[in-house]
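Incident log, support desk, overnight shift.

02:14 A customer reports that sequence design results differ from what the structure should imply. Their input is reproduced verbatim below. On-call engineer (initials T.W.) acknowledged and began investigating.
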């Protein structure tokens, strides 16, 4: 409006600029890794003692974030799964949390940083219920412009809701591959990502 920007979509990028302008690029590069310099804000939620938003140096281990910054799990509980990258992210098993949180390390195991969301689930969590909520989110948010996503997210939700046994006996993998390969935008292309990762890693 009035030839001025009205929306800033990349707040995180803008937030990094003052430090770089004041201290210089080399100071910024002291944090993080060679290919993922700087810091990132991660949002840790779920069954940890201190959920919250934490600014970490890129390359910090996921285990450190969960057990040091976020205080670890509640007494007597064991880790069941971690969803990283939000609803369009992937599930990690407990034996995968020694991963460095930077773009290259996550990509190497098929995960993404996404929005920086980290959802921690202990042994009491209902992962199948989490998948149902993720599937409902994509079904509701699909704009309907292209069929793979419009129909695929609906069918995915139905399969997740109705299946009581093993998902491997359903067409959910074919559905996910079709949405990934044929949807027009990122929403449809990633609508099956978290769900298929949970199934393939034996979390449901
Ligand atoms: S993939 Fe994108 S364009 Fe296609 S229906 Fe889903 S939200 Fe709409």
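02:41 Re-run completed on a clean worker. Output:
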């Amino acid at each position: 409006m009035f030839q001025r920007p009205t929306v800033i979509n990349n707040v995180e990028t803008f937030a990094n600029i003052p430090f770089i302008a004041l201290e210089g690029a080399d100071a910024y590069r002291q944090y993080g890794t060679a290919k993922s310099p700087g810091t990132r804000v991660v949002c840790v939620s779920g069954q940890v003692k201190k959920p919250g938003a934490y600014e970490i140096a890129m390359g910090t281990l996921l285990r450190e974030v969960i057990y040091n910054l976020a205080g670890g799990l509640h007494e007597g509980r064991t880790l069941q799964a971690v969803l990283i990258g939000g609803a369009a992210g992937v599930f990690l098993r407990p034996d995968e949390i020694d991963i460095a949180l930077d773009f290259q390390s996550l990509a190497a195991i098929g995960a993404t940083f996404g929005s920086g969301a980290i959802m921690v689930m202990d042994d009491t969590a209902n992962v199948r219920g989490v998948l149902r909520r993720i599937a409902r989110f994509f079904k509701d948010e699909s704009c309907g412009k292209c069929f793979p996503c419009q129909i695929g997210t609906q069918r995915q939700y139905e399969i997740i809701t109705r299946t009581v046994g093993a998902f491997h006996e359903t067409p959910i993998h074919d559905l996910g591959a079709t949405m990934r390969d044929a949807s027009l935008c990122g929403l449809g292309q990633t609508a099956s990502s978290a769900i298929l990762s949970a199934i393939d890693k034996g979390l449901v």
